[in-house]
Design a protein that fits this description.
Belongs to the aldehyde dehydrogenase family. Homotetramer. This is Alpha-aminoadipic semialdehyde dehydrogenase. It is a single chain. Helix 3 (87-98) runs antiparallel to helix 6 and helix 4 (102-122) packs parallel to helix 5. The longest helix has 21 residues, at 102-122. The protein is of the alpha/beta class. It is 34% helix and 20% strand. The chain has 2 domains: 2-244 and 450-468, 3-Layer(aba) Sandwich (Aldehyde Dehydrogenase, Chain A, domain 1); 249-443, Aldehyde Dehydrogenase, Chain A, domain 2 (3-Layer(aba) Sandwich). It is globular, with a radius of gyration of 24 Å. Helix 6 links the parallel strand 9 (176-180) and strand 10 (210-213). It has a 7-stranded mixed sheet, with helices on both faces. It has helices at residues 47-64, 69-85, 87-98, 102-122, 161-172, 186-202, 217-225, 259-271, 291-303, 323-338, 389-397, 412-419; strands at 12-14, 16-17, 21-22, 27-31, 38-43, 130-131, 138-146, 149-153, 176-180, 210-213, 231-234, 249-253, 283-287, 342-345, 360-363, 380-386, 401-402, 404-408, 428-431, 443-444, 447-448, 455-456, 465-473. It has 12 helices and 23 strands.
């Protein structure tokens, strides 16, 4: 893969960056999921490397926090431009190392670019209001300051975008960042950090503002326990010390739904990224009057999905990320059968090199079957039949997780009931669109086991800052609040 040199990658690469490149931990080989062939090697961080990197990141923060927010935004803009210049080769690396199709790999880098653009504007708008004081000669100000050091632990399925959501916003807020990507996508972490490091160097600011510590459970656990981490963003890597709750997604189709929207939406949400998105649709609830028709049309659409090498522009569906993911897929299919499900299509490993499995539709399971409530990060869609709105809304909310959900209907009243207090309890609630493919301008995150904050748009920037309420007395008197007299 000689083209990897365009990203500054070699056969063996240092996996630690804190202003300089290094690493004294284990050397890990990364593999291509499409053929299980080795790509290159990355030397991971040791605990000593991690300790040094945290110290340098904390020192770098002292410099970064003093730089005016609009200037920080200008540097983030330059990072976006640098990513834009490498977008195709970075997208190719995402396909090669993660396994998603090329157009999705490019789209993921584009998402980071978009967040950089968004952050530039935000850098001139963050801040609190001046509030009316009840005391004469006083000003009441809401002041926002950076939290300090933001730890970012990302998963294999979005090895670029999730880091981008966090780092671009955290940086304009005045924070330093320390990134640990998934061990199986270490090359992507190194390549992205090299691009960022060049921009920081060109602007004569400390490189440790965007530090990197590649590693597995040992480094992740250290970050989770480190009180010097002022904020930790943690996205579902099972290599880390404790399991992060995975995300459940739901989709409901009523009998008045436009099936021309339903079929392509369900197909993309269930099959896109080979079912490995955090917003992948796993449960498809169909009204009993249209159940059989939709299943037949969906099975026909599944049969036409173009399976192949992820870097082939005609491919819509690539491999699973690891051999372990293939085993989880097979186990889930077997459990579905044992619990009363019928496999309409798929259910098998594809006979070709790499981690390829068939996209699968399962029908006949009850809404509360254990496998229906279990996330597998695999392209398995459980199609469930319902009769009335009330029961299906309840089924939506009966699980412990809640990231993304969508309803397909033309009934305006039903739409607003779905969006209301007795409707979906997910963090992302859609109408007549897929569960996948959120825009960067809205806050991204879930509820219940998939709660714990928001990333990307809206007012998510507030998570990366601490709020102070400041009262300034510019008069010569000392009136007390609430009219209290103390004399």
């Amino acid at each position: 893969y000689a083209w990897l040199r365009e990203l500054g990658l070699e056969e063996e690469n240092p996996g630690v960056y804190n202003g300089r490149w290094g690493g004294s931990g284990e050397v890990v080989t990364t593999y291509c999921p499409a053929n299980n062939e080795p790509i290159a090697r990355v030397r991971q961080a040791s605990l000593e490397d991690y300790e040094e990197t945290v110290k340098k990141a904390k020192e770098a923060w002292k410099v970064w926090a003093d730089i005016p927010a609009p200037k920080r935004g200008e540097i983030v803009r330059q990072i976006g431009d640098a990513l834009r210049q490498k977008i195709k080769v970075l997208g190719s690396l995402v396909s090669l190392e993660m396994g998603k199709i090329f157009v999705e790999g490019v789209g993921e880098v584009q998402e980071y670019v978009d967040v950089c653009d968004y952050a530039v504007g935000l850098s001139r708008m963050i801040g609190g209001p001046i509030l009316p004081s009840e005391r004469p000669g006083h000003a009441l100000i809401e002041q926002w300051n950076p939290v300090g050091l933001v730890g970012i632990i990302t998963a294999f399925n979005f090895p670029v975008a999730v880091y981008g959501w966090n780092s671009a916003i955290a940086m304009i807020c005045g924070n330093a960042c320390l990134w640990k990507g998934a061990p199986t996508t270490s090359l992507i972490s190194v390549a992205v950090t090299k691009i960022i490091a060049k921009v920081l160097e060109d602007n004569k600011v400390p490189g440790a503002i965007c530090s990197l510590a590649c590693g597995g459970a040992e480094i992740g656990t250290a970050m989770a326990r480190d009180e010097r981490m002022d904020l930790l963003s943690f996205t579902g890597s099972t290599k880390v010390g404790k399991q992060v709750a995975l995300m459940v997604q739901e989709r409901f189709v009523f009998e008045d739904a436009d099936l021309n929207l339903v079929i392509p939406s369900a197909l993309f949400a269930a099959v896109g990224t080979a079912g490995q998105r955090c917003t992948t649709a796993r449960r498809l609830f169909l009204h009993e009057n249209i159940h059989d028709e939709v299943v037949a049309k969906l099975a026909k659409a599944y049969a036409q999905v173009r399976i192949g090498d992820p870097w082939d522009s005609d491919t819509l569906y690539g491999p699973l990320h690891t051999k372990e993911a293939v085993k989880m897929y097979l186990d889930a299919v077997e459990q579905a059968k044992q619990q009363g499900g019928s496999v309409v299509c798929g259910g098998k490993v594809i006979n070709r090199p790499g981690n390829y499995v068939e996209p699968t539709i399962v029908t006949g399971l009850p809404h509360n079957a254990p496998i229906v409530h279990t996330e597998t990060f695999a392209p398995i869609l459980y199609v469930l039949k319902f009769k009335v709105e009330e029961e299906v809304f309840t089924w939506n909310n009966e699980v412990k997780q809640g990231l993304s959900s969508s309803i397909f209907t033309k009934d305006l009243g039903r739409i607003f009931r779905w969006l209301g207090p007795k409707g979906s309890d997910c963090g992302i609630v859609n109408v007549n669109i897929p569960t996948s493919g959120a825009e960067i301008g809205g806050a991204f995150g879930g509820e219940k086991h998939t709660g714990g904050g928001r990333e990307s748009g809206s007012d998510s920037w507030k998570l990366y800052m601490r709020r102070s309420t400041c009262t300034i007395n510019y008069s010569k008197d000392l009136p007390l609040a609430q009219g209290i007299k103390f004399q």
